[in-house]
Amino acid sequence: MNDIKPEHPRAESLQTRKKLADGFKKGLVTPEGLSAHGRGEAFDYILGEKTTKQAKKAIRAGAAELLLAEKPVFSVNGNVAALVPEEISELSKKTNIEIEVNLFHRSKEREEKIASHLKDHGLDKVLGTEEKHSSEISEIESNRRIVDERGIKAADTVFVPLEDGDRTKNLVSLGKKVITIDLNPMSRTAKSADITITNNIVRAMPLFIKELEKLKESSQEKLSKITKNFDNEQNLRKMLKLMLKRLENLSHR
Amino acid sequence: MNDIKPEHPRAESLQTRKKLADGFKKGLVTPEGLSAHGRGEAFDYILGEKTTKQAKKAIRAGAAELLLAEKPVFSVNGNVAALVPEEISELSKKTNIEIEVNLFHRSKEREEKIASHLKDHGLDKVLGTEEKHSSEISEIESNRRIVDERGIKAADTVFVPLEDGDRTKNLVSLGKKVITIDLNPMSRTAKSADITITNNIVRAMPLFIKELEKLKESSQEKLSKITKNFDNEQNLRKMLKLMLKRLENLSHR
């Protein structure tokens, strides 16, 4: 697929899929990651492959939450690394956020490949790969319980895009603020997080960074107001209604 | 994933995914194919992972169309070969259909692997792999324009499951009758084909073969009546309504 024509009506989606396939060839992404991506594609398709008003609201709330955090951490898995490495590097340069590699299908080799892939894209420091700093969150059952003591373990706010439902729930129950990106508004991740951005990560991340820029000089009061006025449950309900409406319109064509 | 418990609520879907993963390991399926499958899984999930009344209607119309054809061809890509090799072989034994390997992400090696995988499952003759019979359909932009002169090029009816939208449109505009299997009732493939079976290919193919058996001795008149009475647009609209209803129910859980 070296020749995706820009005029193909779904060129963007095909380009994104290619990025992920390349990540797979490099050993960053698992076969399970490829399947999970396809599921996301279907929801994105139903949503019209566009960033909705609701997604923009969630992005704004997420950016405010991140700026309010004392110890924010961005958790990276294989798909996230393959899809938005430049944006991760930019995010780390523009805030005090730490970047941590944290995998569901854990392997030392893949961790290191992901870390060096991120460094190739301009990131200076990556947590989550050094044995001596490895720690556990016993409430989490999967391999993702192994976290960096300097990162997720100590964080007050965790930005975990494309996350597993169990893990999201556990991070929330540990009292951490959780921001996520998830295209399925019915998923357990979407429902358990404090702030869910229902959007494709490749569209959401650049907007997230822009929003951070805009809000950077805002007062704590203003930022707090933004996060307090954000109602995740309501936002997800609206996204679902939008999906239903899209399907309804499509069915009347 | 060697031990999928038959009592698992989604055992069938997991078995299918395993088939595809095995196909990937054998070099039949591309990483993009795995993503595409994940996308189909999501639509199948929304549809309840069942063969609907609409799908059964489309299967019947497709079988009638195939029996009416003078030069029918079945087009096989990596995912199709990995998922239903036995059914392809059965199909070729029960009708005058030719089987042709035709890939979006084309490689000589993969073409040959797919052909020999099909032969391992009982198929005698596979088109699409011999250079000397290779021809072009200039209207098609992707690699799939390269077709076998004895197969798709000469066909009056093409059965192309899991197809790309551009290609389906082009085959239709060349005056060929196109039958497809596509889980997304909104896709360009689904909308452009003459007969779209909105179902999982692993459930659709055995039913398709059964329907062929049933209709085999029918008169041309009867077969023509079945295809004429089939309204693809209406069928897709009904599938969409069903998806809508399912999503509505899922969202109230």
UniProtKB/TrEMBL annotation, chains A, B:
Its EC number is 6.3.2.36. Residues 209-253 form a coiled coil. ATP binds at R17, R39, D182, L183, N184, R188, T189, N200, I201. One of its GO terms (biological process) is coenzyme A biosynthetic process. GO terms for molecular function: acid-amino acid ligase activity; ATP binding. Pathway: Cofactor biosynthesis; coenzyme A biosynthesis. It catalyses: (R)-4-phosphopantoate + beta-alanine + ATP = (R)-4'-phosphopantothenate + AMP + diphosphate + H(+). It is an enzyme of class 6 (ligase). The keyword Coiled coil applies. Gene3D superfamilies: Phosphopantoate/pantothenate synthetase. The keyword ATP-binding applies. Keywords: ATP-binding, Coenzyme A biosynthesis, Coiled coil, Ligase, Nucleotide-binding. Homodimer. Belongs to the archaeal phosphopantothenate synthetase family. NCBIfam families: PRK13761.1. Catalyzes the condensation of (R)-4-phosphopantoate and beta-alanine to 4'-phosphopantothenate in the CoA biosynthesis pathway. This is 4-phosphopantoate--beta-alanine ligase. The lineage of its organism: Archaea, Methanobacteriati, Methanobacteriota, candidate division MSBL1.
